[in-house]
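Much of the work behind modern protein science is quiet bookkeeping, done one molecule at a time. The protein below has been through that process, and both of its lines are reproduced in full.
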Amino acid sequence: MDHKDNYDRLLPMPVKLGFGIANLGDTVITEFVGAFFIFFLTNIAGVRPALAGTIVFLGVMWDAISDPIIGTMSDRCTLEAGRRRPFLLISTVPLILLTTMMFTKVNFSANLKFVYFVVVSVFYWTAYTLFNIPYLSLGSELTTNNDEKTRASSIRQVFGTCGLFFANALPMILVSLFKGQGISEERAWTLAALTLGAIAGTAIFITWRATRGWEIKYPPQSKDEPIFKSLGKVLTYKPYILVIVASFLFYFAFNTCNASVIYNTIVVVGATEADTAVVYLAGTIVGVILSVLIGKLAVVFDKKWVFITFMAIAGFALVIFKFVGFHSITDQVIQFCMAHFAIIGFLVLSYNLLYDVCEVYEFKTGEMLTGVMISYFSFFIKLGKATALQAVGILLDLGGYDASLTIQPDSAKAAVTNMASIIPGCLMLLCALVVCFYPINRVRFRAMQNARKLKDEGKAYSTSEFDRIL
């Protein structure tokens, strides 16, 4: 039997690796922006912190708004090559160019500079959405085997964690290398962005090629239905609502924590920009280990409770740092490594929770709206990111942060400490609490799958074992 005809299947390792590597590209471009774009705007491009936060907020909010549009376009795509993979190919070159343009200092007036970075951000996030939504949807459409999806997701996240190194540690290494060759700091940042964009584009292209012929041919969504009509359908489904609320809380926490690293290292700890590479490298190493561990635990135990456990561990750890403080680069390393319990737990397992929701929703309604569901899930992720980065800019401004000062005032140090500890910690704990109410567990999901087989065969079936998830 041809592999395309057998959907409850194991994926060959080259396919799983090929699918996963695009997550390296995804992480490189988004987390590089999340960790350094505000810093670049304030310290290199000369933009005030509050305005820098607004630039990031507007760009990410546009990304969030465009998600449902791209998701629906992907669901309705009728190309022979598939309804997900063509979007990956289309987005590759624009992402490389626009990542470079975002980290290019322009000698404009303050107003024109603001307009330039907003416009480039909007185009950048549009190109990212063209890749991201179809890619995440593809993860649910290579196999219907639930455990195999978890294994593929674990591999995907190993690449994603490696991407965190490229996104977080490599930029400062590249900037230092370019500056060491006599290149100006502004130009060094542009070349670093070009390098990272090229790495991301190459990874996305490899995934496009490696998954050829493996995308399940689901029938496209009807083009007669208004694009936003599907929103009303999926937002009435409780498990889906819980997942998207959890995604908002986590990404608010994650981006607050991630953006604070370079400020906390310089302002509170008193180390150098280059020392942030040590922090990010340590986080990457811990993240790779956790990716493998969490993937294995989620196959043995119920992934819902694995998610909750790791999210809560990180939340409590970060809250503790509010009271013990940051006194050395070692403290910053420990904080970031503990944050990875939540970061990796979410990145490995959240999409599997969402894929389960998509399958149960298909059983309930007969519609496989993976693209729509992932697009609104992504909307709340980006809403969390936009809100966090806007909050970072406002908190820095209110705290009196001034990039021209060698020593920052105590109010700025307090603001940065809060961004690195109690704010993300409490949000992570709230995220864990929300997922406690998520009703889809392993027993109910497998009962649903058995009922679906009987339903497809035209036989009688009962929903009594899994009524709660419908």
Q: What stands out?
A: The longest helix spans residues 329-365. Residues 180 and 201 are 26 Å apart (CA to CA).
